[in-house]
Design brief:
284 residues; 2 domains; four-stranded parallel beta sheet
Amino acid sequence: MRDAGHDAVVVGSGPNGLAAAITLARAGRSVVVYEAATTWGGGLRTEELTLPGFRHDVCATAFPLAAASPFFRQLSLEDYGLSWVHPDAPLAHPLDDGTAVVLERSVAATAAGLGSDGAAWERIFGALSARAEMLAHDLLGPLRVPRHPVALARFGVLGLLPARTLARTVFSGERARALFAGLAAHSMLALDQPVSAAIGLVLGMYAHAVGWPFVRGGAQALADALVACLRAAGGDVVTNHPVESVDALPAARQVLLDLTPRQVVALAGERLRPRARPRLRRDR
């Protein structure tokens, strides 16, 4: 980008920014991460929000995709203090009648609590969880030619649907529909939007395959482990360092922005194509 002081500068110390920095540092590149907040981690933060000594996760709490991630697993973050805690059941969804439907690690045990929809749940999530390891590189990695195109295509047949369509087509009862809707709501899409089913399928699949663990000590401990891993590879993180413009950054061959679309426009607007700026500003 400019004459190099660093090979790369990363703005934003969320898990994606830290993952990029670790990848570069482990490849022998000099890299520094700048974070505007006083602590690193982005959504991986744990703070005393109520009483002294009581720490609460501010954003992310359960981490099925981190536990399933091929990239995270290759980092051996346990060597940097990370410890997963697995609840007996990954999750439960409360219903209006005062009961709850529970998603168990076992597909069969979950299906047993869904009445007449148990067979459909077992058919869909039994097949998916059996392929969870196979699909991890294609679903949880960067966009690329898929390693397992047939398995990914089978996933896509259902994943491209709106969550509401899938739930009403496949399940007949409230319990299974509610459980799937709760999973799919993590997509941040309206449940009648295409592809909203995909997140429900992925989160359900990995709930069965690896669970929905949380981090001992809170989500911040995952960020701390990533930073320790980065520093062991030769990179660094600078906190309490707001960046107003990419032009204010130190010289680097590459600049990576782990930011929201609107923040990207604020920092690098003049470098973007004019037609792209309005779309990024409208991003929700």
